[in-house]
Amino acid sequence: MKTVAVYSDADRDAPYVRLADESYGLGPSAAAESYLNIPAILKALKQSRADAVHPGYGFLSENPHFSRAVTSAGVLFIGPGEGAMRLLGDKISARRLAESVGVPVVPGARKPLSSLKAAILAARAAGYPVLVKAAGGGGGKGMRVVRSEAELGSALAGARADALLAFGDGRLFLEKYIQDPKHVEVQVIADSAGNAIHLGERECSVQRRHQKIIEESPSTVVSAGLRGRITEAALKLIRKSRYTNAGTVEFILDREGRFYFLEVNTRLQVEHPVTEMRVGLDIVWEQIRVAEGLPLSVGQKDVEFRGHAIEARVYAEDPENGFFPTTGTIVGFKAPTGLGIREDRGFEGGTEITTHYDPMLSKVIAWGNSREEARKRLMRVLENYEIFGVKTNIPLCLWVLNHAEFRSGKYGTSFLEEELRPDCLKAPADVRAGAAVAAVLREQILRGNKSNGLAGSIDSGWRSKILEYMI
Ligand code: ADP
Ligand code: ADP
Ligand code: MG
Fold first, then answer.
1. Rounded to the nearest whole angstrom, what is the distance from the C-alpha of residue 139 to the centroid of ligand 2?
2. E strand or H helix at 460, and its extent?
């Protein structure tokens, strides 16, 4: 299959552009003018005569206008139909559908909040604390925890402003805020002949600001009985909405083992490799088959679950400085590798990291026969993962993977917020001093400064080692 990539000015030299057989520029770096610009994408579609579009994740991947625009141009959209996307992509209508098929939802409002008064009544009925959410939300944006009636007004205003900015849709609803739940989601995929299967669950409770950082499968707390109920609930929703293609049905689990429907992500998810590592299926390939009208390559009984997989999202952000996104040019890196390791990486040497888009650099996934084996493998490769040029959240990922609460599997979504202290991630003084010396040496060697300074006293063997290590 030949591939066509589209890119913005900022991504002109991105590795994926070179990997594609053909590529087309969409325009300026700002997402609104490139990756969210439907006419520009349709133009590239026409020029390239591509016969299918994979929308990836983020950007237009859950946008029904885009799905329709692609289909109207006579091109296959690799994702669900516009109707199912519209129904499930809206959190309010998805909640209603879940209730209609007997899938439990978090207690809360059934319709968009029209006024402060309506919000006050809905919050009283649900009981504080409550969570104000955007109907069109995603990526943890447009969400506010409200602990008392006095906070409700400003939370509504803040959430509405966030939601308008991020999704162009200011509709809000609210539901009971469940204390320290677990986030458990079910990967599903359905073909146009009506076969719908699940590929097990993923647990994604390690979150910062409602955004996932570490994901694993299977969940440490889902028993066989609960797995049966939660996967059946997910498939019920998929069948009822006549959903086709891959999707994820998200739930939260409370401390009493009750589960509640949260939302459906009507696309491939960032963390899909966790599932692929366990079931040995290529979800994207299945997506393409299904979009072409072919049946799924496997039935439910053919899906075998093996071992355990854990993913760490590597972000260009500085955990020692309020998780501020970091920018710069990646001058070198030493990639993770080894048995049971997969890396989906979006950069190479020379890539410039900007603040135009999400700061995700890479995803590192480890598979093991047991959870402990997967965890140790992931820790080993992250400890050795060197990225030079921008700071990353790797120290945070390692801190989580090594934490007693993560190891016990008991962690919930409040884990990071409760346990992470500013000094948790500071490297020991000797490591910092060593890094500073290495940086100075590298500068001197690169400048050919051999006669004076520290570098002059290093023999050539060490000099090449330092260069190899640092570049
Ligand atoms: P998931 O539930 O799989 O984490 P998200 O809803 O967080 O998915 O979104 C998928 C990815 O796309 C995330 O990395 C998110 O930050 C990114 N993303 C979503 N919308 C945009 C956008 N408008 N611009 C850039 N990145 C986006
Ligand atoms: P998004 O579309 O931004 O992914 P979700 O509804 O999936 O929004 O929620 C994102 C995260 O926010 C969840 O994984 C969970 O950690 C938290 N969350 C959502 N709803 C609730 C709730 N009712 N109680 C407690 N936490 C919640
Ligand atoms: Mg979600």
1. 9
2. helix 460-470
Q: What is the dihedral of CA 6, 9, 13, 16, to 10 degrees?
A: -30
Pocket of ligand 1 (CB under 6 A): 31, 57-59, 138-139, 212, 265, 269-271, 357-358, 360
Nearest CA to ligand 1 atom 19: 58
Q: Whose atoms come closest to the Cα of 272: which ligand?
A: 1
Question: What is the Cα–Cα distance from 18 to 82, expressed in whole angstroms?
Answer: 31
C-alpha 138 – ligand 3 centre gap (Å): 6
Tokens at residue 221, please? 């707390």
Question: What type of residue sits at position 253?
Answer: L
User: Distance between CA 319 and CA 397 in Å, rounded?
Assistant: 10
Please compute Rg for the chain using Cα positions. 24
Measured in Å, how far apart are the chain's first and last C-alpha atoms? 35
What is the Cα–Cα distance from 222 to 213, expressed in whole angstroms? 20
pTM of the model: 0.90
Q: Which ligand ends up closest to the CA of 89? A: 2
Pocket of ligand 2 (CB under 6 A): 106, 131, 137-140, 175-178, 181, 183, 207, 210, 250, 252, 262-263, 413
Task: List the single range of 78-87, 185-194, 438-447 with lowest mean pLDDT.
Answer: 438-447
Q: State how far the Cα of 439 lies from the Cα of 272, in Å rounded to an integer.
A: 37
3-state helix, strand, coil in the chain (%, to 5): 40, 25, 35
User: Atom of ligand 1 at shortest distance to CA of 212?
Assistant: 4
Is the confidence at residue 451, as pLDDT, over 80? no
Note the pLDDT of residue 450: 56
* Cβ partners under 8 Å of residue 4, min gap 6: 20, 21, 22, 23, 24, 44, 48, 50
**For the segment 28-56, what is each residue's pLDDT rounded down to a tens digit?**
999 999 999 999 999 999 999 999 999 99
CA distance 171 to 169: 6
Mutate-to-test residue for ligand 2 from 203, 252, 416, highest number of ligand atoms within 8 A of CB: 252
Catalytic residues, by residue number, are 267
Round to whole Å and give the CA distance between 240 and 96.
12
